[in-house]
Structures are given as C-alpha cells and as structure tokens.
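Backbones bend. To wit:
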Amino acid sequence: MAYIGLQAQIRRNNARSTVILACFPLLILAGVYAFFFFTAGGRERIDEVNMMFIKTIPFVIGGVLIWFLIAYFGNTAMIRMATQAHTLDRKENMRVYNLTENLCMTIGMTMPKLYIIDSPALNAFASGIDQKSYAVTLTSGIIETLDDQELEAVIAHELTHIRNRDVRLLIISIVFVGILSFIVQILFRSLLFGGGRRKDKDNDKMMLIALAIAAVAFLLSILFKFALSRKREYLADAGAVEMTRNTKAMASALRKISGNSEVDEVKSDDVKQMFIEHKSLSGLSGLFATHPPIEKRIAVLEQM
C-alpha cells in the first residue's frame, strides 16, 4: 500500500509539474504581448497590438529554443565546471560504488556516473538529462562522515530524483529562469549606462516598461521554479526509505547534514539548488525556498 501511495503522489506531482513547466514559455510570450500592449496604444489599438505580437512569435520562440538547446545539452559540462567535481575513483571508493550498484540492481536501474567534490561540507546532488549523462555527485565530507546506512539513504535519495526525472525538470526550469534573468540584466544595464546618451525620451519610457515587465516575469518564473523543487524533496526522501527499507537512516543522515551543508567551493546558486540541502536567503512564507526546512523533512520521515 505504501508503494502504491508513493507512486500515486509521484504521478500527481508530475502532472502538476507539467502544468508549471508549460507556464515558463507562456510567461515569456505573455511578457512580449504586455510590452506591445503598453507601448503601442493599449486597447485603443488592440488590433495593431495583436498583429505585432503574432508577427513576433516565431522570432521569440526561435530565440528561446536556440538558448534552451544550448543550455539543455551543455548543462553537464557547465555543472562540472561550476562544482569542480571530478570522477570518483572506483578503486579508492569501493564503498560508494558497492552501495550505488546494490541499490541500482535492486530497482533495475542503470548505474549513473559518480563524481566527487573535494569539500568538507556534507552534501550531494543528482544531475543529467538522459542515461548517458545521469550522475550522482557527493562531497568528500559526506562520504567520510556518514555511516554505510546513512550514505546509502543519501544515494537512494539522489537515485530517486533521477528515476522521477526531477533532475531534468529542474534543469529545464533553470534554463527558462536564466533566459528571463539575462533579459532583465540587459535591459537594466542598457537603461543605466545608455540613458544619458539617449535624446528620445520615448525610448527611455519603452525601456522602463520592458524592464518592469521582464522583472515581473522573472519573479514569477522563480516562484514557478521553487514550486517545482520543494515537493520533490519530500518524495525523494520517501523514495529513499522505500528503496533502502530503512526508515531511520534518511532522517539520521539529514540530522548530520543540517548545519554542515554549505559547499563554499560552489558559487553558482543554480547548482546549489540541486543539492540535497540548500538554505535560501529569502523566506516570505517559504515562497522563495528551494527546499523545505530540513526539520520538517525529518519530522515527516519519523512518521513513516
């Protein structure tokens, strides 16, 4: 019954995630339409606004698609560069390999690649978009600190992210948020450094409108991304328990990780959002949190 219940939750969450993912390209198109609406005359010239928007759609979609494909297929190299991770040597880390292989054989899953970050912090993450690129990355600190059962639970957590295609969803959301972030930065810098050279005040007004719309779209995209992340951590914790048949190991691992998870070697916040634990700087009732509080995750695990 527990297995069926968990799978039902995963299916519902995947359906919900599909809706949220569809919001990303729609958000970009809505932003473009809003720009034309506010700069071309609004309701009084709505036919002209609609025509301008329709003519622009292929160029917007084409530009977004090119950006998306480059980032999507280049993410593995980008992540490795950002984390300075290197291949986990099998001979020197037979313990990690054995734990991972046993878990993969248990669930009939192809074993992902294993990487290590030389850091005393306690953390781990899964990445990749397909069987060839799926990987689990662990810090040296988490390998050295956790016992076998706790480390097995952490690896199972990351394997669950791969099985549930969470890593692919997160990468897609990061790409779209990155597009909007880039637009906001370009508009802001153009307005800041180019405003003094512009004689046409209408251009300044259009830039301000574009910046305001892009900023709102960027904020909404961040909320969409965080909404994708939080629920999946609970499901990955539950998946780890189901996979290892150990109700206490995951909670015990999270207790040790808590307060020791900050990987100083990694500067990219986008990559940090992939970690098993990442504390956001912002609160606002959890809207801007990429992960649920670790205390709540432990409490949920203890109820299993």
